[in-house]
Inverse folding.
């Protein structure tokens, strides 16, 4: 068994009285891609957002259970949430570049985490953009507004921005659902590249995407994990009838 | 059969549309005529100081002595212009951080409590008559300044504090709207990089909403610039540039309200007051222009 980067144990999420995620336990292997699939409202995005404590920002949202990272329960009270989010980056459904230059978008995180040296920042910006396959397209306009980039470029910028703070894990919440097919292909290529170094968890509506990019897939239904196995097995020989019905497009 | 085709001629509908169009057109024309007549009236009166009475424009704008009733009348309005600008800008310097921070509290820190209780209270400030502000300023702020700092207490500082409270609702309301309109994704993006709320607000929220914040501040300055009564009550109304913030001075508006009733239509003094009004009006146009520019920039 590969090294485990993060492990959720009996994680439940409630919005007020409504239980969105119920008793989910999943392990995520380091240096691999795990896909979370399932129909709308099944709790996969909510679960993902709990992993780096983004749900703390939502009033009425209560996350119970344990999230183990190395040998710490990061869902325990008293955890430094801000430090957690530096270790576990996140890319959102809609590209959300800051209203700043491309350079400043990348430098924002590292600068806050203590990198003041201009030369060091330049290096981080170049390295992050290169790894997000965006350097060639942007090296001549680093100080132009990030908002002038196309949707796909903006999303790669957001990925570069996450890499720049040197996380262990990157959570992606339907990162390609607002993009055209060509941009989507680029993002998927990028994910396959990034998994050499990071643990990536991706929520997707697109089952083919899950099949293309992930090693393991978890199928969510009404707030619970129905099945969790290697992607090959899930897509060719699932154990559960619900999984095969969903994957073959009979519902969802 | 023939009957059902009658409607195709559609005359009743056309009449209805025509009446509606005509009615709205009359309304907008009424507004346009009213505003342009006012501009024409103020301009013709204000300009006659220079055209009819032969006062030099430069003398009025840069002169330091205002004594229209003297044997050789002097029309130096610089003290008033200085007073208007210094009180309004100082008021904005006091009110802007307060307004922004209040808006941050209402939107980011305690949205429920803020929206439900704080916002109505702040908006209530906008409805208080200016004479009440002036009265409170005169009986609380002026004595406080008089006891704390050297000087008479009245002056730019007292005027600016009163104006700051008066323009606070404008600045806060616009700041609140700007913060609430910020896409949630931007803030999440910042949090997801491991930044604190303080960092997110100071580095992302404030810069992104800056054009809108500036609009609020300029609107506040414009309101402060035009406010007459409350300022007049606490500023002292001496027509000279003061040596300190706590010394009697005057503004364009207070000069007009104080003397307008004591001059006769058509006299030089009266015309000179119209010139002050013209300066006020032109400044208002400048403020509106600045706001337009800011709005255009914020759309990019």
């Amino acid at each position: 068994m590969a090294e485990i980067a993060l492990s959720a144990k009996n994680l439940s999420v409630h919005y007020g009285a409504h239980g969105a995620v119920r008793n989910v336990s999943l392990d995520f292997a380091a240096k691999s891609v795990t896909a979370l699939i399932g129909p709308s409202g099944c709790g996969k995005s909510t679960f993902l957002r709990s992993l780096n404590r983004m749900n703390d920002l939502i009033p009425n949202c209560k996350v119970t259970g344990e999230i183990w990272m190395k040998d710490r329960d990061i869902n325990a009270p008293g955890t430094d949430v801000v430090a957690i989010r530096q270790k576990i980056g996140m890319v959102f459904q809609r590209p959300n570049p800051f209203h700043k230059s491309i350079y400043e978008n990348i430098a924002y995180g590292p600068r806050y985490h203590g990198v003041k040296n201009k030369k060091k920042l330049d290096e981080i910006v170049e390295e992050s953009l290169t790894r997000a396959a965006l350097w060639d397209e942007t090296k001549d306009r680093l100080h132009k507004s990030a908002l002038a980039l196309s949707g796909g470029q903006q999303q790669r910028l957001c990925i570069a921005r996450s890499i720049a703070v040197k996380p262990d894990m990157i959570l992606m919440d339907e990162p390609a659902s607002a993009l055209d097919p060509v941009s989507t292909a680029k993002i998927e290529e990028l994910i396959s590249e990034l998994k050499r170094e990071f643990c990536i968890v991706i929520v997707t509506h697109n089952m083919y995407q899950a099949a293309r990019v992930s090693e393991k897939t978890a199928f969510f239904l009404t707030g619970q994990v129905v099945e969790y196995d290697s992607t090959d097995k899930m897509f060719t020989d699932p154990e559960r009838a619900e999984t095969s019905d969903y994957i073959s497009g009979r519902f969802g | 059969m023939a009957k059902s085709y009658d409607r195709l001629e559609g005359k009743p509908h056309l009449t209805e549309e025509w009446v509606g169009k005509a009615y709205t057109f009359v309304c907008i024309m009424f507004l346009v005529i009213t505003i342009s007549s006012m501009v024409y009236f103020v301009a013709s009166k204000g300009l006659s100081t220079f055209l009819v009475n032969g006062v030099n424009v430069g003398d009025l704008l840069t002169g330091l002595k205002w004594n229209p009733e003297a044997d050789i009348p002097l029309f130096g309005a610089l003290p008033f212009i200085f007073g208007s600008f210094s009180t309004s800008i100082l008021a904005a310097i006091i009110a802007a951080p307060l307004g922004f921070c209040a808006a941050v509290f209402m939107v980011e820190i305690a949205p429920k409590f803020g929206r439900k209780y704080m916002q109505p209270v702040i908006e209530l400030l906008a409805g208080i008559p200016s004479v009440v502000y002036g009265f409170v300023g005169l009986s609380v702020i002026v004595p406080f300044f008089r006891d704390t700092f050297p000087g008479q207490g009245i002056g730019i500082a007292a005027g600016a504090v009163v104006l700051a409270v008066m323009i606070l609702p404008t600045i806060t309301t616009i700041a609140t709207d700007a913060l609430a309109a910020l896409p949630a994704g931007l803030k999440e993006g910042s949090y997801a990089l491991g930044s604190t709320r303080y960092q997110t607000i100071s580095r992302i929220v404030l810069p992104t909403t800056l054009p809108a914040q500036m609009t609020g501040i300029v609107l506040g300055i414009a309101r402060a610039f035009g406010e007459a009564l409350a300022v007049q009550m606490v500023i002292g109304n001496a027509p000279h540039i003061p040596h300190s913030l706590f010394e009697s001075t005057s503004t364009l508006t207070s000069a007009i309200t104080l003397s307008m009733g004591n001059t006769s239509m058509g006299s030089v003094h009266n015309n000179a007051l119209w010139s002050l009004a013209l300066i006020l009006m032109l400044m208002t146009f400048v403020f509106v222009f600045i706001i337009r520019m800011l709005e255009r920039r914020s759309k990019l």
